[in-house]
Amino acid sequence: MAEYTTEIARLLVVSRESAVLRPLWAIAEPNSWQVEVAASAWDAIERVQSGLAPHLLVLDLPRGDGDGLHILRWLRRLRPDLPVVVTCCSEDAERRKEIMRLGAQEVLVRPFDDASLESVICRHLSPLENTQGEIASEDIEQVGPDVFFVSASPITQRLRAQIHLLAEADVPVLMLGEPGSGKDAVARLIHKLSVRSGFKFLKVNCADMPGELLEAELFGTGGPLSPGGVWPSSGKLERAEKGTIFLEEIAEMPLSLQERLVQILQDKVPLNEGSNKKVPVDVRILAGTSASIDRALSERKLREDLYYRLSAFTVQVPPLRQRKSELTILLRHTMHQLAKHYGLPPRDFSSAVLAGCQQHSWPGNLKELESFVKRYLVSGDMELAFNDLPLKSKVAVGRNETSPRQITVGFGRVNGEPDPSSAKSLKSLIQDVKSETERNAIATALKKTSWNRKAAARLLQVSYRTLLYKIDQYHMTSSDTFLSLPAGKLSLQNATNQSNGKES
Hints:
The protein is an alpha/beta fold and 504 residues long. The protein has helices at 18-31, 41-49, 70-78, 96-101, 114-125, 128-135, 154-169, 183-193, 211-219, 236-239, 255-267, 293-298, 304-310, 327-342, 351-359, 365-379, 382-386, 426-448, 453-460, 464-473, 492-498, and strands spanning 10-14, 34-38, 56-60, 84-88, 106-109, 140-144, 147-150, 173-176, 201-205, 244-248, 284-289, 314-316.
C-alpha cells in the first residue's frame, strides 16, 4: 500500500453488518488505518461534508436495499475524487454495472475473505495523488481553458523547442497538421511564451462560417450604421490589439478576405468596408490548415502572396500515431481533466486497454482520443466506449506537403508511419490483447498441471466446464507449445477482467 507520510489513512464505513465490520477491524490495525462507522448513508454524507474527510468510503448494501445507491449520486457531486468500494450480497451482484456507473471503484460480493478486502482497499488507497503526481509533470503545460500541451516524447520536445524560438520572434507562423492534431494548443503556447501573453488570444475557424459572417467576425461591421440598422462593432482583429489571433483552416477563407489579410500583414492598416478611415492593427497572426498546401495553391484556394507571408516560419504538428510514447500520459491526463469537468471520479485504464490504444492508429488524433475517454468516463462500459470508433483506421485527410520555397525551422516530418489499411479498430485490438492473455494463462496452468484439466481449472479459479470451453475455443492441444505469463498470480479471471477496464 502507498504510505501516507503526513496523516493516517481514514476509512468511513457505511454498514451495520458484523460480517463487514469484523474483517475491517481485523485488517485496520496492522495497516494503521483509522476506521469510522456511519449508521446510514445520510450520516455518511454529513461526515463527508463536515470535519476531516475520509480517504476511502466502504458502502455496504443490505440485502434488497434499493435506496442505498443514493449516496453514490450525492458523493459524485460532493466529492468526485473520493474512492468508494461497495460490498453487496450475491443477489445484488447483477447491479454491478449500475453501481460502477454511479461512481464506485469496485464491488465486492459477500462472502469475501480478509485478504480480498484488504487487497481492494490497499489498491484504492494508493492515492490519486500518486497518479496526479505522475501526470502533473513539467511535460504538461496548461495553455488555455481545458487546453494543454504535452511534450513527453522526442518529437514533441523538438516541437516545444521550436515553439520557444518562434514565441520570441513575433512573426507570423503557419501551422500544418491533420485535423485534431493540436494546432490550437501550439498556437496558444506560442502566445503564452511571447511578449504578447498579457493581452488577448482570439481564435477564428475560417471553415465554420460563410464569407459575409467571417468578414464581420474578423473586420467588424464597419460604417456608421450597417444594413438593417445594426450599430457598428469591432472585429476580432481589432479586439485582439497587441495580442494574438489564430486563424484556423486558413485555406477555407474566401479569396477577397485573404487579400485584406495580406494588406494587414504588409501595411498593418486594413481599410474597413464602408469607411474611409484606416485603422492601424497591432496583432500577431498565426494561421493553421489541415489541407495540402500544394493542392490549395494549385486549386487557387490559397493566395500565393498570403502563403509566402505566412510561411516564412512553418510548424509541422505531428499526428497522434507519431506520438505513441505519450499515449498513456495523454489518456490519463485527459481522463482527469474530463472527470474534473463533469464532477465524476476518474476511471483507470487496464493494461489491455493501454496495449490496444498503442496499436490503434487514431485517425481522428487528439479529438478522437478525447471522445473515447469521455464515453468511457461517463458510461463506465468499455464496450460502449468503443462503439463510435472507426471500423477501419484511415487518415481522414491527405498528407500536408510544404512548398520547397518555404523555410521550416528545425522541425520536419517523421517517416515510417504505419500502413493505415492494415490497422484494426481499437475494440478489436483490445479484444486481441485480452484473448492472447487469456490463452497464455490457460496454457501456463495446463503446463503446470501436466494437462490435468481439473487441476488447471482449480488453479485458474474457474469451473471445469468453462476451462473445457476455452480449450476448445482456442483450439489447444497437449502437443502445443505456449508462451507463459510473467510471474505473478495465475488467474483466468485476471485476463477476463482486463476487457472490462479493470486490473485484477
